[in-house]
Design the sequence.
C-alpha cells in the first residue's frame, strides 16, 4: 500500500524539508498552495522546484488545490473551522476537482507529499486533500 506524506514548511528550512522528504522516500512533491510564493527563503516556486530537482525529487504545483483568499484570511485569524468550510466548498469547483484527480493519479503511482505552509496539519487545508486522497486511493497518510 502506498503512503501519502504531507509537510508544512512553517518551522523548517528548505534543507530540512528536502532531508525529511528524502528520508521518507518521497519521489514527487505536490505543492498545494494557491500562491506558490513565500517570504521564507527557498520556498518560492522556481527556487523550490530547482532545489528539489537537484535532490532527485520532482515538483508539481496544483494551484487549484490551494485555499482561496477568504480561507487563507480565516486561517491567519485562527478561524480554522471557517477555513475548512470554505475549503470544502472550494473543492467542489471544476478546477479543484480536476487537480484533485491529478493528485490522485500522481500519488497512486509514486510516493508523493503534499506541501503547504502550516506546520500543524490540523490547521491546514492539506489535511482535507490528504483525507480525500486516502478515501480514493486507500493509502496511509504520514505527516512529516
Sequence:
Amino acid at each position: 500500500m502506498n503512503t501519502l506524506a504531507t509537510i508544512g514548511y512553517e518551522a523548517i528550512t528548505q534543507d530540512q524539508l528536502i532531508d525529511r522528504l528524502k528520508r521518507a522516500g518521497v519521489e514527487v512533491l505536490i505543492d498545494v498552495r494557491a500562491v506558490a510564493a513565500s517570504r521564507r527563503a527557498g520556498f518560492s516556486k522556481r527556487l523550490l522546484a530547482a532545489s528539489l530537482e537537484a535532490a532527485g525529487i520532482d515538483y508539481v504545483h496544483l494551484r487549484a488545490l490551494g485555499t482561496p483568499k477568504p480561507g487563507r484570511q480565516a486561517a491567519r485569524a485562527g478561524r480554522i473551522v471557517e477555513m475548512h468550510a470554505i475549503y470544502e466548498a472550494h473543492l467542489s469547483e471544476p478546477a479543484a476537482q480536476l487537480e484533485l484527480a491529478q493528485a490522485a493519479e500522481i500519488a497512486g503511482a509514486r510516493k508523493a507529499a503534499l506541501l503547504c505552509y502550516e506546520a500543524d496539519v490540523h490547521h491546514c487545508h492539506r489535511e482535507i486533500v490528504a483525507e480525500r486522497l486516502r478515501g480514493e486511493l486507500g493509502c496511509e497518510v504520514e505527516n512529516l
The two ends are 18 Å apart (CA to CA). The first helix runs from residue 14 to 23. The beta strands are 3-8, 28-31, 58-61, 112-116, 140-143.
